[in-house]
Write a structure and sequence with these properties.
single chain; mainly alpha; 4-stranded antiparallel β-sheet; elongated
Length: 384
């Protein structure tokens, strides 16, 4: 937007000269002579302002200074050299008519004001002094969300994650060279007050495996004699109804302890519903259910007996896609750390990073990149 100002000055001055009655060549000569110094001075001073950024240590700001400063000068040069030629072509093609400009009161006042340079300097100095009063309220905003358009969907969901999940969507990466180092760092990170969740290959491995395996082995004698009869006894629907009636009878008159009343109501409800069902159909369904139920029992007991001789779960037992998520090809282990605090709050983010670096000074990740980039950006603007 800064580069178009030079063209606006040239076009408006050209129209002014043409309105005064000059031909195209004379109007262009007066335009370039009248606006050239101002455009050149404005371009150079603006480029110098951006050029000051080149001296900063932050590469992003330095490159911004180079691009912006150089771009301003290139825009000024193109406006002085190319725009007059384009105006000449446009005049030959369209042959516009310029009506004499009628002077008005506002125009006369502005013309009179701009001729009084002392008044302009005085007003500018007053405004400059007044602007100094606002310096106390000027602060560096570390929250990059404020740079986004108001109501952006990404910003809404980021804040929603923080409020509902109790953690930020931004994570930090901690690296380890061995499984034991991963385990130590994982446990140390979980103890930090600013950490909400830690994810690594350790999260998928059961804790205290040896102790749990010993407990499982104690079940071996109990499971050895546990069997499910291979042959099923057919279910008698009539016998079931008879049994439920006996249950209802025995529950009558009992004190309401341990849900007796509820059990009595359930028994009565079952008997009421049984009168609505065909006995033969109900008996077939019960036998089918019984067959599936006992088949499931046999499978579960077989699994229990098999797992009595369990061995510790190791990393190699994990699915390949899970291992690739946390372990690189050269055996570097990844630990993802999610903060429990709002990382967009500079004080909380500083504390989060401080605690992380106590565990691993080489911690990296999105949150660290954001922290370091904003810090370098501020230092670049403030200290150069």
């Amino acid at each position: 937007g800064l580069g178009i100002d030079f063209g606006i000055h040239i076009l408006e001055r050209f129209k002014e000269e043409r309105t005064a009655g000059d031909d195209v060549l004379e109007a262009l000569q007066k335009t370039v002579q009248g606006t050239g110094r101002g455009n050149f001075a404005g371009a150079v001073t603006t480029a110098m302002a951006f050029g000051g950024m080149i001296l900063t240590d932050f590469v992003g700001i330095a490159e911004l200074g180079k691009i912006s400063g150089g771009g301003i000068l290139l825009c000024m040069i193109s406006m002085i050299l190319l725009l007059p030629a384009l105006i000449t072509v446009e005049e030959k093609i369209t042959k516009p008519r310029y009506l004499p400009k009628q002077s008005d009161r506002k125009g006369r006042l502005l013309e009179k004001f701009f001729k009084n340079y002392r008044a302009i300097i005085f007003v500018s100095m007053v405004l400059f002094v007044l602007s100094l009063l606002s310096l106390r309220t000027v602060a560096f905003d570390y929250n990059l969300l404020n740079l986004q358009a108001h109501g952006t969907e990404a910003v809404k969901y980021e804040m929603k994650v923080i409020e509902t999940a109790g953690r930020s969507a931004w994570s930090v990466a901690v690296l380890a060279d061995s499984l034991e180092e991963t385990r130590k760092k994982h446990k140390a990170l979980e103890k930090l007050s600013t950490v909400g969740n830690v994810e690594s290959i350790i999260s998928t491995l059961p804790e205290e495996q040896e102790k749990k395996i010993e407990t499982i082995k104690e079940l071996a004698p109990l499971l050895s004699d546990l069997e499910v009869e291979p042959d099923l006894v057919p279910v008698s629907y009539a016998g079931l109804i008879k049994t439920m009636k006996r249950v209802r009878f025995k529950l009558q008159g009992k004190e309401d302890k341990g849900g007796v009343t509820k059990a009595r109501k359930l028994a009565q409800s079952f008997l009421d519903e049984s009168e609505k069902v065909d006995a033969e159909v109900a008996e077939k369904r019960l036998n089918s259910f019984s067959e599936k139920l006992f088949a499931d029992y046999r499978g579960k007991i077989a699994d229990l007996k098999k797992n009595v001789s369990a061995s510790p779960v190791i990393v190699e037992d994990m699915p390949e896609n899970l291992r690739e998520r946390y372990i690189s090809r050269n055996r570097v282990y990844l630990i993802n750390v999610y903060p429990s605090v709002d990382v967009w709050d500079i004080d909380k983010r500083n504390e989060f990073v401080k605690q992380l670096k106590q565990v691993d000074p080489n911690v990296t990740g999105n949150a660290i990149h954001m922290f370091e980039s904003t810090r370098l950006m501020k230092d670049g603007y403030v200290y150069g």
